[in-house]
Design brief:
With 116 residues, the chain is mainly beta. It has no helices and 11 strands. The strands form 2 sheets. Strands 2, 4, 5, 6, 9, 10 and 11 form a 7-stranded mixed sheet that branches. Strand 5 and strand 6 form a beta hairpin.
Amino acid sequence: QVQLVESGGGLVQPGGSLRLSCAASGFSLNGYHIGWFRHAPGKEREGVACISSSDVYTDYTDSVKGRFTISRDNAKNTVSLQMNSLKPEDTAVYYCNLELFGRSYWGQGTQVTVSS
């Protein structure tokens, strides 16, 4: 059974940083495309960043380019999202996602609140 668990969210002031982590149990994330999404109240769920199965390619939504960095740690079986220069509009619940054999796996999400 694949389980994803996000962690690292919290309350941070504008301009601050957070590092989110997506950990997997019962499954190795190594070699799989992983995405980070976010869902803010009153808005559609939005893809934020993704990393390719080979780790060669990463992609970001325009609003976070230059501020967020996605990376994978195979030893820890995690995919992280380093978020710098946070803005109030980054406030949302953040989820990691794995697509595997036609099924979509999500964690429970971690809340990120950017506010002074």
